[in-house]
Amino acid sequence: MRRPPCTGCSAPPRRSGTFLLRRPSTLDLLTGDPQRLPEVRGQEMTRQYREDLLRCVGADPEQRMPVAETTGEQAQLALRTAYRAALTRIAVADLLAEDPLVEFERIAACLADLAGAALEAALAVARAEIAQTSPEVSRVALAVIGMGKCGARELNYISDVDVIYAVGPAQPDPDDADDVEPENAQPLEEQRLVQLGEELVRALTQVIHGVGPEPALWEVDANLRPEGKDGPLVRTVDSHRAYCRRWAENWEFQALLKARPIAGDPQLGRQYLEAVTPFVWEASGREGFVGSVQAMRRRVSDHIPEAERERQIKLGIGGLRDVEFTVQLLQLVHGRTDEQVRTRGTLESLRALAERSYHLPGGRPRLRRPLPLAAPAGAPGAAAQLRRTH
């Protein structure tokens, strides 16, 4: 007899229930045979989700820069409905898992890949909408870089999606004979590239969590970008590189450990990683690097209200952030010379560090199974309602 899983990814989300009430035609997601989740190991992204969500807005998944046929509320409704149908399938598979701890990494990766697919489809809608007034947007490439849990493919049901954006001139697709540069076309100036990139991002964001007939999906959070809220929303790859070289702080390199292209132009995404990754692995050579990372962790702990410190499993002493900070610090120190520990996910990184015998005094880490139990960011009510409760 199967028992309900006890991981943080599980518990049938209450919002999935309200989604089924709003869309009774989707009830067969519960009554039919559960679909097996796609295989995620050894893959950067699950293609199935990308193809399904692009098609639901009338975009061609085979194009490098897909453009939707539907726009506005119609596209918003189609995307959010298709996303929640896929989310319900993941939740059902989670609930029926024989061993939820074994399935934890697959569930988290599927959630991250589904979020990336939603951003891809939203970008296709944004391209169609912006093209109505600015046709030259077809000459703009945008890469969406996943950060945090999404970048590491360890997303949970109640996570926001942290992103960074890179913009550049679109290059003709070598696999598409019809995709050629117009004759006498002048390159777009950087200022115009950035302006159009920002318009795409704002339109994309509106599709994901703007007001509409179907509730918003989640917040798209770009605050990890260079200069945070005070910085430009999008930058060219050269601008990202210059920032890393001259101004980036140690905590920013720590955050970039999780960076992964999740939507948009794949070539531009690779260029972004090639530009910033070398700085990440050189960071530990900075004077006072270890001390500054430890000081950052203490500042996080110091901001926890006294009444919450004993029960803060996320930010408190010995909580999830302590595990993540420790793993990331070890990665940054040893990854400078050992590429085998240059991994993104916390569990994956723990395994890599343990295999190479890199650990703090006290012995080899033994957190592989307990960690998923603590993975949800909050109380059971948060997972049940698909929202944070504290």
From TrEMBL:
Using the UniProt annotation, give all residue ranges assigned to the region (Disordered): 361-390
Q: Which residues form the Glutamate-ammonia ligase adenylyltransferase repeated domain?
A: 59-274
Q: Which InterPro entries match?
A: GlnE, GlnE_rpt_dom, NT_sf, PII_UdlTrfase/GS_AdlTrfase
A Pfam family cross-referenced in the UniProt record is GlnD_UR_UTase
Which UniProt keywords are listed? ATP-binding, Magnesium, Multifunctional enzyme, Nucleotide-binding, Nucleotidyltransferase, Transferase
Q: Which GO terms describe its cellular component?
A: cytosol
Q: What is this protein called?
A: Glutamate-ammonia-ligase adenylyltransferase
